[in-house]
C-alpha cells in the first residue's frame, strides 16, 4: 500500500471574478521511502497539491475534492482535527521556501522546536531541549546550544533552513514535504541543504516530496518526477528517463530551454507565451497554446493520463 | 578602443553603529573593496557571487545610484565620479538599469506606453506624439505588440513586465545597461525568452551589458566575460568559457561545484569549503613580480585575472 495515495484531486478557490482552479484532477502515489520531485512553474498547482494533502489550506475559501486522498492509511478528506494533528508532524512534515516567515519571530529557535516535540510526545522540557540540540547537530549545525537560544532574525537563511529541517524531523515523519526549500538560498548553500536532505532521507528511510521549479534540484535529489502544468500532471517517470527521453512536449520544451547546457554564448530554445491564467485556463490540454506540435483535438479535449510503460505515464494526445 | 564602462579601484564602506547611546560602538563594513573592471563596447560582462558579495553595490555605483567611497567611474572614457546632478544628466541617458523585480519597478498607475515614454519625457526628447510613437515601437521591439500600449502593469505576466522594463531602459538608446538579476524572478519557461531578447537587442543596438547574477547557468549562455566577487572583492575574471573550464580560484571552483547537475547520472557527493578554507587556499604564484605577502589580483594571462599571493 502506498504511503501517500491521491486520486483525482481538485482544489479550487471561488473568487468574485470566478473560480480559480489551482489543481485540476491530480493523481499521485508515493511509496514508503520513495523520493518524488514535483516540478512546475508558479501557478502549476504543485504547492497547493501538497498543502491540500496535509489540509493546511484554509477551507473555505479553498474547496478540496478527490476520489481518494490517503496518507498512511488515514483518509485525509474526512479526518477529524485530532486525526489531522496526529498525522502532521508524525506521519508527514513540511519544510517551506521562506524559513524567515515560517518561524515565529518573537520566540527562540529552541522554544519553537521544543514546543513542536512536546505537542506530539509526552516528554519533559529538558528532555525535549536535549533532543532539539541533537537534531540541530544532526543538520550540521556546529553550535547547537547557541542556535537554540537565538531568535530567527539573528540567523542566516541557510542556518534557518537547517533549523526548520531539524524541526520537521523532530517527530520522525514517514514523509517529508519540501516546498522549494532552497529557492531563497545562495547556490553554495543550496548544494549543502540538498545534500543534507538526501542524507537524512536515506538515514531515516523516509519518503520525500521535493517541490521545485528547478530541474537541477530534481536531477540532484529524487528517484521519480511528476511534471505539473496548469493544475494538471503532464508526465511522470523515473528521474533518469525524464532527462534522457522526456515524453511530453512540455517536458521536452523545458529541458531544451535550460540555460548552460552547452558551452558558449548562444540563443536558447524558448517556449513562446506565458503560463496559463488559473482563473481562465485554456480548454483541452493546458499546454496547447504554447505547444509546438499541438493539433485541433488538443484544444478541444483534455488528453487522458495514459501509461506508456510500467513506470511512465503522460497526458498527451500525440503519445500512444 | 575606449571601453563602454570602466571602474577603477571602487570602494564602498558603510559605517555601522551598534545601539548603546553615547556608548555605541562604531564599525566600518567594507561592502566593496578596490574593484576595477572594464566592460568593453558591445560585450556582456557577467558579475557573479553570492548574496552579500557586493555585486549589486558595484552595479549601483557604476550607475551612480550609490555613491562610491573612493575610486573612479568612467563612461565612454569620461570620468563621471564627481559630476553633480545637472552635469550627470547627459550621462544618465547613456546608462540604464533593469532590476530583478519588475513588479515594483513599474508604476502601477501608468500605462505601458507612458512608462516606456517617460525617459524621453524626462530628457525632453521630441513631442508628446513622437514620444508615444517611439514607445510603441520599442514595445514591439521587445516582443509586445502595439495594443499593449494602453494596458497597465498588473495585466501582464512576469515575463511581459520584464520586457516593459527592458523597453524603458533601452528607449534612450543607452551605451551601457546594468541588468541586476533580470531573470531570477521569472518562470523557467520564460527565462529563455528574456535571455534571447537581451542577446538580440545587444547585437542589434550595440549595447554593452553588465549582467549581475548568481545563476551561473544563465551567465554561461549570455556573457562574454565573467568576474567573480567574494567578500566585496574580485577574486577572478576571465573569458566565460575559461571560467567554466579552467577556473583557478578556490571560490570560483566552489561556486561551479555547487551548480546543480544537468543530468541525474552526474550526481556526486560534494565537499564544501568554509570561508576560512577558501581564504587559506588562495593560490600561490611565482614569476609574476615582487611578493607583498598579501592576496592581490594578478594578470596571469592576457584575458585572465586571479587573486593570488606572490612568492
Protein described:
The complex is a heterodimer of chains A (320) and B (311). Chain A has 320 residues and is α/β, with parallel strands linked by helices. Chain A is 34% helix and 22% strand. Chain A has twelve helices and 13 strands. In chain A, the strands form two sheets. An eight-stranded mixed beta sheet of chain A has the order 7-8-9-3-10-11-13-12, with helices on both faces. In chain A, β12 (306-307) and β13 form a beta hairpin. In chain A, α4 (109-120) crosses α5 and α5 crosses α7 (157-169). The longest helix of chain A is centred in the middle third of the chain and has 18 residues, at 187-204. Chain A is globular, with a radius of gyration of 20 Å. In chain A, 47% of the residues are buried. With 311 residues, chain B is of the alpha/beta class. Chain B has one domain (5-94, 174-310): Rossmann fold. Chain B has eleven helices and 13 strands. Chain B has helices spanning 55-62, 85-92, 102-105, 112-122, 128-141, 158-170, 188-205, 216-222, 240-246, 250-258, 275-280; strands at 5-18, 25-39, 44-48, 70-75, 78-79, 95-98, 176-180, 208-213, 225-230, 233-239, 284-285, 295-301, 304-310. In chain B, β1 and β2 (25-39) form a beta hairpin. In chain B, α4 (112-122) packs across α5 (128-141), α4 (112-122) packs parallel to α6 and α5 crosses α6 (158-170). The longest helix of chain B has 18 residues, at 188-205. The radius of gyration of chain B is 21 Å and the shape is globular. In chain B, 43% of the residues are buried. At the A-B interface, α8, α9 and α10 of A face α6, α7, α8, α9 and α10 of B.
Could you give a short description of this structure?
The complex is a heterodimer of chains A (320) and B (311). Chain A is α/β, with parallel strands linked by helices and 320 residues long.
Amino acid at each position: 500500500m502506498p504511503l501517500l495515495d491521491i486520486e483525482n484531486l481538485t482544489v479550487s478557490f471561488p473568487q468574485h471574478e470566478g473560480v480559480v482552479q489551482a489543481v485540476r484532477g491530480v493523481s499521485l502515489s508515493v511509496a514508503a521511502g520513495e523520493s518524488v520531485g514535483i516540478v512546475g512553474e508558479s501557478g502549476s498547482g504543485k504547492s497547493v497539491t501538497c498543502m491540500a494533502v496535509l489540509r493546511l489550506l484554509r477551507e473555505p475559501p479553498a474547496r478540496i475534492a478527490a476520489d481518494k486522498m490517503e496518507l498512511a492509511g488515514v483518509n485525509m478528506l474526512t479526518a477529524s482535527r485530532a486525526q489531522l494533528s496526529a498525522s502532521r508532524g508524525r506521519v508527514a512534515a513540511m519544510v517551506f521556501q521562506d524559513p524567515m516567515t515560517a518561524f515565529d519571530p518573537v520566540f527562540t529557535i529552541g522554544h519553537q522546536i521544543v514546543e513542536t516535540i512536546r505537542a506530539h510526545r509526552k516528554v519533559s522540557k529538558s528532555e525535549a531541549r536535549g533532543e532539539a540540540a541533537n537534531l540541530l547537530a544532526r543538520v550540521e549545525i556546529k553550535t547547537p546550544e547557541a542556535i537554540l537560544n537565538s531568535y530567527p532574525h539573528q540567523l542566516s537563511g541557510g542556518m534557518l533552513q537547517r533549523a526548520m529541517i531539524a524541526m520537521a524531523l523532530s517527530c520522525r515523519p514517514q514523509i517529508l514535504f519540501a516546498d522549494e526549500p532552497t529557492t531563497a538560498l545562495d547556490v553554495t548553500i543550496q548544494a549543502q541543504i540538498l545534500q543534507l536532505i538526501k542524507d537524512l532521507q536515506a538515514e531515516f528511510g523516509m519518503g520525500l516530496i521535493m517541490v521545485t521549479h528547478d530541474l537541477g534540484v530534481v536531477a540532484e535529489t529524487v528517484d521519480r518526477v511528476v511534471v505539473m502544468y496548469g493544475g494538471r500532471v503532464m508526465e511522470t517517470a523515473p528521474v533518469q528517463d525524464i532527462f534522457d527521453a522526456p515524453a511530453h512536449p512540455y517536458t521536452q520544451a523545458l529541458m531544451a530551454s535550460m540555460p548552460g547546457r552547452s558551452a558558449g554564448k548562444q540563443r536558447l530554445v524558448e517556449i513562446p507565451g506565458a503560463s496559463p491564467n488559473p482563473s481562465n485556463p485554456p480548454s483541452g490540454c493546458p499546454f496547447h497554446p504554447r505547444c509546438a506540435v499541438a493539433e485541433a483535438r488538443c484544444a478541444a479535449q483534455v488528453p487522458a493520463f495514459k501509461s506508456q510503460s510500467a513506470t511512465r505515464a503522460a497526458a498527451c494526445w500525440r503519445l500512444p | 578602443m575606449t571601453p563602454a564602462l570602466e571602474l577603477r579601484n571602487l570602494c564602498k564602506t558603510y559605517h555601522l553603529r551598534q545601539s548603546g547611546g553615547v556608548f555605541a560602538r562604531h564599525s566600518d563594513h567594507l561592502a566593496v573593496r578596490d574593484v576595477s573592471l572594464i566592460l568593453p563596447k558591445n560585450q556582456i560582462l557577467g558579475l557573479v557571487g553570492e548574496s552579500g558579495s557586493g555585486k549589486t553595490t558595484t552595479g549601483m555605483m557604476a550607475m551612480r545610484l550609490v555613491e562610491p567611497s573612493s575610486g573612479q567611474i568612467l563612461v565612454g572614457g569620461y570620468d563621471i565620479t564627481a559630476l553633480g546632478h545637472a552635469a550627470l544628466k547627459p550621462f544618465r541617458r547613456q546608462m540604464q538599469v533593469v532590476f530583478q523585480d519588475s513588479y515594483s519597478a513599474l508604476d502601477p498607475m501608468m500605462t505601458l506606453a507612458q512608462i516606456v515614454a517617460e525617459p524621453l519625457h524626462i530628457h525632453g526628447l521630441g513631442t508628446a506624439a513622437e514620444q508615444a510613437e517611439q514607445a510603441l515601437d520599442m514595445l514591439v521591439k521587445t516582443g509586445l505588440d502595439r495594443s499593449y500600449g494602453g494596458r497597465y502593469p498588473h495585466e501582464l505576466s512576469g515575463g511581459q513586465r520584464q520586457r516593459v522594463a527592458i523597453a524603458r531602459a533601452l528607449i534612450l538608446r543607452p551605451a551601457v545597461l546594468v541588468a541586476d538579476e533580470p531573470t531570477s524572478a521569472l518562470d523557467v519557461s520564460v527565462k529563455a525568452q528574456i535571455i534571447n531578447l537581451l542577446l538580440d537587442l545587444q547585437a542589434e543596438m550595440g549595447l554593452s551589458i553588465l549582467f549581475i547574477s548568481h545563476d551561473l547557468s544563465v551567465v554561461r549562455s549570455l556573457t562574454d566575460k565573467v568576474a567573480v566577487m567574494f567578500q566585496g572583492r574580485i577574486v577572478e575574471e576571465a573569458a566565460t568559457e575559461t571560467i567554466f573550464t579552467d577556473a583557478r580560484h578556490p571560490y570560483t571552483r566552489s561556486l561551479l561545484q555547487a551548480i546543480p547537475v544537468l543530468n541525474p547520472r552526474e550526481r556526486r557527493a560534494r565537499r564544501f569549503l568554509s570561508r576560512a578554507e577558501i581564504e587559506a587556499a588562495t593560490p600561490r604564484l611565482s614569476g609574476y613580480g615582487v611578493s607583498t605577502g598579501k592576496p592581490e589580483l594578478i594578470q596571469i594571462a592576457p584575458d585572465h585575472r586571479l587573486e593570488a599571493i606572490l612568492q
